[in-house]
Amino acid sequence: MKILFVCDGNICRSPAAAALFRSNLQNGSVEVRSAGIYASEGRAMIQQMQQVLAEYGLTNTHRSQKISSENLTWADLIFTMTRPQKFVLISRVPAIADKVYTLQEYLGHPAQDIA
């Protein structure tokens, strides 16, 4: 299973979600990546989120990356943080529509975004 977490800048929400998800994996059969729709390449995760992850015992050397068609086709599941992000991805690559969900939608809370 290959999971891609997506947000806007890839410096807060999606890399944090990926790090938390990865830390809960029981084995190596799941691959996890994150990317941003409007990301600048190579930026570090914001300090506040690094501190939050540190509270969970997680260190992070993440560097932002912009979403690519390779990432979109690589993933079996794609989780966005907001509904607009989901619609942007689907409008760019309609063929991925059946594997893109907001994270909240996948968890049963379809009307809620992660701000």
Structure, explained:
The protein contains 5 helices and 4 strands; from the N terminus they run βαβααβαβα. The chain is α/β, with parallel strands linked by helices. Strands 2-1-3-4 form a 4-stranded parallel beta sheet, with helices on both faces. It is globular. The two termini are 26 Å apart.
**Estimated share of beta-strand residues:** 15-25%
Helix content: 25-40%
Shape: globular
Sheet/helix structural class: alpha/beta
> Counting H and I runs of at least 4 residues, what is the number of helices?
5
Report the C-alpha radius of gyration, rounded: 13 Å
Largest sheet: 4 strands, parallel
- Strand numbers in spatial order across the main sheet: 2-1-3-4
Give a quick precis of the structure:
This protein has helices at 13-23, 47-55, 69-74, 83-92, 103-106, and strands spanning 2-7, 31-36, 77-80, 100-102. The chain is α/β, with parallel strands linked by helices.
Keywords, please?
globular; 4 strands; 115 residues; four-stranded parallel beta sheet; alpha/beta
